[in-house]
Specification:
alpha+beta, 285 residues, Aminopeptidase, 11 helices
């Protein structure tokens, strides 16, 4: 699409909860994380913008968290509409893009990016869910120190107790020690959707189906409260994909996550230096 055509979008910041929710509901399974932010603890840090077509209908949405960079940047809807938003209204310098490959391609001349993580969005509802029983227990604020020790083995550290109290967390203990856990990223009862995550098993206990047990327990409790549960999993993680499929999760669509850096900021000014260094390293030695 040409720059002239892009200028035909009308773009503005939005704060009206119902207007934002109406657009997110057009693809609620894709927008699960953003729906969580709509009413969750991070709602005060989220900035939203919509792009409107010539007839006044909303065609694209962007959401960016304010705070120390990089923060999540979520794109939804018409890719060129998203580009128009990022050109004029939401202009994060550095962000962690959560979108599709089509969105990434549309903003490629606005942002440089790192190599992407390709994810699968998997979803389950009450009709499809197949529980997997095991010796799990519900975790609470009293367990946050043990939970953090477990997560320090992998991808996450420093949970406050409120994260466990406000979410849904289950764990498995062996010899009294917490060796596996799963919980929630977001839960939105008002919109009827939640996202499962923070699944971790101690390396010494992998292969024992503990991750499947705790994921099943979290999913089961969520489905007593709301109709849809989602999660993300790396496309390269075949064992996890198979485990989630056994619980009834189905693949909804591919997603892309990557760090992006605005070209007209400091990162953009450094591009010639970066390219020169890259070519130096690529020369035969």
């Amino acid at each position: 699409m040409t720059a002239t055509a892009r200028s035909e979008y009308r773009v503005r910041n939005v704060a009206d909860r119902d207007q934002i929710a109406a657009f997110l509901r057009t693809d609620r399974l894709y927008a699960a994380y953003a729906i969580g932010d709509l009413d969750g603890p991070a709602r005060s840090r989220a900035a939203w913008a919509l792009a409107f077509a010539g007839d006044g209908s909303p065609v694209a949405l962007a959401m960016h968290h304010e705070g120390l960079v990089p923060q999540p940047l979520f794109l939804m809807g018409d890719p060129d509409g998203c580009r128009a938003i990022l050109e004029s209204t939401l202009r994060p310098r550095d962000a962690y893009l959560q979108a599709t490959e089509e969105h990434a391609a549309a903003i490629s001349d606005v942002y440089d990016w790192e190599l992407p993580l390709t994810m699968l969005r998997m979803v389950v509802d009450r009709d499809r869910f197949v529980p997997f029983a095991g010796p799990v227990e519900r975790l609470g604020a009293r367990d946050v120190e043990e939970l953090n020790r477990l997560y320090q083995l992998g991808f996450r550290t420093g949970f406050p107790a409120s994260v466990v109290e406000d979410g849904v967390y289950y764990g498995v203990r062996v010899g009294g020690a917490l060796v596996s856990a799963a919980g929630t990223h977001v839960v939105n009862p008002r919109e009827g959707i939640a996202v499962v995550g923070n699944v971790m098993t101690d390396t010494a206990h992998r292969g024992s189906d503990y991750a499947k047990m705790v994921t099943s327990a979290v999913t089961a409790e969520l489905l007593t409260r709301l109709p849809d549960v989602a999660l993300n999993v790396h496309t390269t993680n075949g064992p996890a994909i198979a485990a989630y499929a056994r619980l009834g999760y189905r693949t909804y669509r591919d997603l892309s996550e990557r760090l992006v850096h605005r070209r007209d900021g400091g990162w953009g000014l450094m591009r010639p230096i970066r390219e020169a260094l890259r070519m130096t390293w690529l020369r035969p030695r």
